[in-house]
Amino acid sequence: ESSAASDVYKRQLWKRYESDQHVENLTLEKLQPSHIRNFLIRPNWSAKTQRTVKSTLSPLLTEFKPHLVQSVKLKKPTSTLHKPFDNIYEILEDIKAYNKQLYLCCLMTYGCLLRPHREIRELTWSDFSDDLKYIHLSGNRNKSGKNRIVPVPIYIRELLIKGEPHHNIFTDTTRPLNEDYFKTLWSRFKKQSNLIEQGQTLYSFRHSGAIEIFKRTGSLTKLQKAMGHSSINVSLTYLRGLEVAELKEEDMPMVFN
């Protein structure tokens, strides 16, 4: 259902584009690379979003016009390191006072290490175990493509009141919040908060949670599994700049047996 809702959203975007560009009811025969380029390259879409939407369009059009989408060249997205929080409790309390749904989203991004804009936004009660202690996400629901089982900390479980199995946890209906909901809320919160620093985003909660797990466990393998990363190398990027002593005295070269 969430995938269907996403498809409906993309069709609405295309219809809006047709209307704005005065090219309503554009047929495949008349479709040109310029139409695809103008649709993809828009000020409010990041380079990453443009590439994601392009990859969605590509298989849809390949059968009819194989080179149409491929001929549109996009900028390579720059790697973004989301700055972690030093004052996580203070930030969360400020968000709690601002908006309860944004608070739950941020808390789950930090405590469950799920990605906010899809994995958390699309959560239904059927994704939780009966006792709410675990979240089960199938491979098509997360970025790595692998099934994930994520523990739910007690401080999050205390906020949850289980609803109908196929109902979204935020809307209490079968439809999730719109794709930009948390992004918009975060932007509004950031403007009125004096706690958020440059480079801190919704994903900073996930970054902060990753650092906390590594500090507690010292295990890259556990960190990789918790984050749902495809490789340890991806997990390592979350630890850049973290001052953690990787060598212990017993690891150093010995002179005598």
3D structure, described in words:
The chain is mostly helical and 257 residues long. The chain contains eleven helices and two strands; from the N terminus they run ααααααββααααα. A two-stranded antiparallel sheet has the order 1-2. Mean pLDDT is 80; it is low at 1-5.
Write down the Rg.
22 Å
Mean pLDDT: 80
Would you identify the regions where 5 or more consecutive residues have pLDDT less than 50? 1-5
The general outline is globular
Q: What are the secondary-structure elements, in order, as H or E?
A: HHHHHHEEHHHHH
List the helices and strands and how they pair.
Elements: H1 2-21, H2 33-40, H3 47-62, H4 88-98, H5 100-111, H6 116-120, E1 134-137, E2 148-151, H7 154-157, H8 181-192, H9 203-217, H10 220-227, H11 232-236
Antiparallel strand pairs: 1-2
Helix pairs in contact: 4-5, 5-9, 9-10
How would you sum up this structure in a few lines?
By secondary structure, this protein is mainly alpha-helical. The chain has helices spanning 2-21, 33-40, 47-62, 88-98, 100-111, 116-120, 154-157, 181-192, 203-217, 220-227, 232-236; strands spanning 134-137, 148-151.
